[in-house]
Amino acid sequence: MELKKNIYDLLKNIVGESYIFTDEETRNHYGHDETEDYVFPPSVVLKPANAKEISEILKVANEFYIPVTPIGARTGLSGGALCVQKGIGLSMERLNKIIEIDEKNLQVTVEPAVITQVLRETVLEKNLSYPVDPSSQGSCWIGGNVAENAGGARALKYGVTKDYVLNLEVVLPNGEIIWTGANTLKNSTGYNLTQLMVGSEGTLGVITKIVLKLIPANKHNVLLLVPFYKSTQACEAVSAIFRAGIVPSALEFMERDALEWTMRYVDGVSVPIKDKIQAHLLIEVDGNYPEILMQEAEKILEVVENYEIDEVLFADSEEQKNALWKMRRAVGEAVKSNSIYKEEDTVVPRYELPALLNGIKAIGIKYGFQSVCYGHAGDGNLHVNIIKGDLSDEKWNKEVPKGIREIFELTVALKGTLSGEHGIGYVQKNYMDIAFSKSHLELMESIKRVFDANHILNPGKIFPDEEV
Amino acid sequence: MELKKNIYDLLKNIVGESYIFTDEETRNHYGHDETEDYVFPPSVVLKPANAKEISEILKVANEFYIPVTPIGARTGLSGGALCVQKGIGLSMERLNKIIEIDEKNLQVTVEPAVITQVLRETVLEKNLSYPVDPSSQGSCWIGGNVAENAGGARALKYGVTKDYVLNLEVVLPNGEIIWTGANTLKNSTGYNLTQLMVGSEGTLGVITKIVLKLIPANKHNVLLLVPFYKSTQACEAVSAIFRAGIVPSALEFMERDALEWTMRYVDGVSVPIKDKIQAHLLIEVDGNYPEILMQEAEKILEVVENYEIDEVLFADSEEQKNALWKMRRAVGEAVKSNSIYKEEDTVVPRYELPALLNGIKAIGIKYGFQSVCYGHAGDGNLHVNIIKGDLSDEKWNKEVPKGIREIFELTVALKGTLSGEHGIGYVQKNYMDIAFSKSHLELMESIKRVFDANHILNPGKIFPDEEV
Known about the structure:
The structure is a homodimer.
Chain A (H helix, E strand, L loop, with lengths): L4 H11 L4 E2 L2 H6 L14 E3 L4 H14 L3 E4 L16 E4 L6 E5 L4 E4 L5 H9 L3 E2 L12 H7 L6 H4 L6 E7 L5 E3 L13 H5 L8 E8 L1 E2 L3 E9 L2 H13 L6 E6 H10 L13 E9 L2 H15 L8 E2 L3 H21 L2 E7 L5 H15 L2 E7 L4 E7 L5 H21 L18 H4 L2 H14 L17
Parallel strand pairs in A: 2-4, 3-4
Antiparallel strand pairs in A: 1-2, 5-6, 6-10, 7-11, 8-9, 8-10, 12-14, 12-15, 13-14, 13-17, 16-18, 17-18
């Protein structure tokens, strides 16, 4: 799609000459996120200053049927920010302020392009916590977190992004600017458009301000790394810990390969892994009372000692804790650097994890692919990385998708679903029929049309190709 | 609306002769809930056995444009279950089973007509908690809680109904039965229809099964009753307690009148109230470690001692705790038994409570009405009871609604909204323009049409009269 001169001029008049780009380098730069090796450059990149300018841009786009794809930090793993139908790449980067930390009401109002970790650290200075911490928190933005309903390692205790979003300022495709709700903890006033917007992957509106709930920060935590001789026993232990009455603040699962590859990839992190160890659980409890945390850690030890484990590592300094977390957060990138791969973001009720893991391995054998699994086992969210390795392109493009389909079918059969925290975006959309009936998908598409009659906003996402 | 013979026969064939009623007594019985003194009998009462029958009923209703109002326990305070356009009153009472307590995944699957307290007590036997406890928990049903997104006294720490709903089985107005999501803690798979359905007050679909998240139950709690000489200082203390880093499990505010009327109304509850005491805070902390709770209670004492308070009552036995909670839960009924009244369910960010309370009293003086305020101050949710007393009918019907409008305008100006936990239903709908622009309301109405093109489901609710 080539941009016509008259439209270029209209857009330039809105954002100003310094914030409109059509050169190839810029378009390529904004044409990819972290999803496999896809590149879909937009026809033009715009960097608006505020909601008002975004409103004007959407009015033009709506009049001339130009696709608009909101672009955040481009750390997404489902291709939500890829400009698959070209058009306008709408970079949110200039909306990057923490507008107000409201200590009196434990809330923060923030623009979308604030790095999640920066937000977390800034509110922590006031002893407040925004506890949602995606593994990419050092580079992802809060706006993208809201758009994809991001989770992270602490979701099992603290919930996901949606559980903290109280209110959103949104620019609708017709240019109107609304607040979806109110800045209150309770709200039974009309339909919950706030929660409809969270996780809608930029297809219903452009988020320009976010009001988040904060909680008092916990002061202490204890971190354990437990090596298991059998992966499925590690998965079984996850559910057993909860049944012992403990809600850990993190409970992460890593297969042996994930850990070994990461140690090769990340400097300064090293954990001795004995022969025959198949998986590790990284377990954290947090709170304000160290003596209670030690009691809880001991209870956890009692639970995991029912399984075949090796010696448990207690992280006994902040440095060691940081190193372990750094390692865990780097798994995704380590896998990526190792081989071409596809990542699926499966989620099931947590007790079903062993069944899911066994099923994935069996499917891998059937279709001849290797997989590396890791993720937020405490909430049943397993990232399945399917490795190309030395598979032929033929096999990779024809056979592997059949295996992925079987993995998702298994996930849904276990009362889980396709994506726990990455979103459907571009790369999972053609599996949506596994989770939803045709009429259910049509219901979602009708909601899409209510917001975006001309289908300009982030087209080519969420809905299967044949459906739109 | 008279029911035609052919339609009666169609409906009778679906539910069976024992479960269709057109006699006046039954219609009147199902024609009211707890909202003021409204009675709107349906033309026919149906008591279907399951989702399949409800699906057949909705197909008939959709074909012949017959209004259908889902009816729960009829404990609602916004008129959500009133059959304001007659038609079918769809009593959910036979869908009353706890289907499965899934201890392995900390979930429960339940039908809508289970009493909330029964659900809570049943899962507690397994040391699990469903922590949402509306004041009417002894009689309300979980289905109505989901439909209205009910809150209650523990919402400040544990959240409201929406925070526990993982998945819903819903019969759509066209008769189709869908599950809205998956039984997982994380879900980024398409639009969040689960959360759109929660709080939609029976206008988008009929909820027939509910999957709720459970949490490990806390074993201990401490309860304090703090008398304040000034109501606004009681409100100020609410925010100060949170700022001291404590998240109480309940933080209830009661004006003097609320407490005095309740003591007259409820047997076996008596608290000495000194002259000049204007309000009380009922404060609870809970957890698993009694020594920690005592530390937190002491911190709370330090905070409230900064205000003009009288002697604090520590509830030192289960009996005393139960008596205090019984008293608190009876305030609504006590006010109701005292006079004709209107109840508004205002909610603001919690720090704004003193401003809200002062504003309400000033508006009362302006329009000449008395109000009694109480509620879940910890989450900024104040129930405003406007007392008819000896006001003339003329004043009650003409002037008081102007005052209510001003109260809601104040609420919205303070970044709050109309309803925290009761829903909009029938009695608040004509104030919706205060919270939402015309086009915002139109957006909600368009969503309504996506689900319910013929507008059969619970018509006359949520949307202002002129809008529909």
